Amino acid sequence: MSLIAAELTVEGRLEEVTAAMQTGQVTAICGPNGAGKSTLLQCLAGLLPTEGGLVALDHRPLDQMRSCERAQTIGYLPQNGEIAWDLTVRNLVSLGRLPHRDRGEAEVAEALSALDLDPFAERPVSQLSGGERARALLARVLAGTPRWILADEPLAALDIAHQLALIGHFRRTARDGVGVVLVLHDLALAMNYADRVIVLDRGVKAADGDPQMALSEDVIARVWGVPARWLGEPGARALIPG
Ligand SMILES: Nc1ncnc2c1ncn2[C@@H]1O[C@H](COP(=O)(O)OP(=O)(O)OP(=O)(O)O)[C@@H](O)[C@H]1O
């Protein structure tokens, strides 16, 4: 098992947030706009220097790892990622193999298939819809076969069928020993599919634990300021406002 442990303060954005995540689990990071979710994910990926605190992967501070090793180990999907060149989808996804310095044709093919991109593989990315583009960017991360997947709102642009297919893929990947950390705005997806939920509120941790506890109606009322009720059975819950 691998572990990422963080103890973080980022001026004006995160205040003494501690978190420890393990492989084999899907961890969701939830919270209102501006709560610090993307900031936390960037810190966990080693992309944002932290003034106070530390992020360690298996007790090794991330900033002491070589960038190549870090890139092989941690796959990061930013929110609204840019695509600088008008590559074909296959070539974009192949960029995920850069840290490994190989073509990784089998891994690229697997990632294309996991994201249902085979019909678009030879198409320039400029000719994709928003959701297809989001899937191509995530496929690039998966092609790198990282031990950790850190993805910022990976489901936001996807239709319900692709959301469910992808969350199923994340769950299987976690079962195979990968650590999956997802920023999610959809609280029902977090409730039904995450093993663990971290809730941030204005830069501080408001809850951390199993989804039933971390996303209780009380927490939702306190953090989001919205009265809401959970209906349905565990694993198939729906959040009803009011
Ligand atoms: N580059 C930056 N420099 C300074 N402050 C920033 C920067 N990026 C974001 N912030 C601020 O830090 C806080 C946390 O931002 P962050 O993007 O982490 O929030 P978030 O929870 O991901 O929000 P959202 O749900 O809107 O994506 C916000 O108040 C934001 O305005």
From TrEMBL:
One of the Pfam families matching this protein, by short name: ABC_tran
Annotated Gene3D superfamilies: P-loop containing nucleotide triphosphate hydrolases
GO MF annotation terms: ATP binding; ATP hydrolysis activity
InterPro entries: AAA+_ATPase, ABC_transporter-like_ATP-bd, ABC_transporter-like_CS, P-loop_NTPase
SMART domains recorded: AAA
Chain ranges of the ABC transporter domain: 3-227
Keywords tagged on the record: ATP-binding, Nucleotide-binding, Translocase, Transport
Keyword Glycoprotein: no
Record carries keyword Transport: yes
Function: Part of the ABC transporter complex HmuTUV involved in hemin import. Responsible for energy coupling to the transport system.
Protein name (database record): ABC transporter ATP-binding protein
UniProt organism field: Tsuneonella suprasediminis
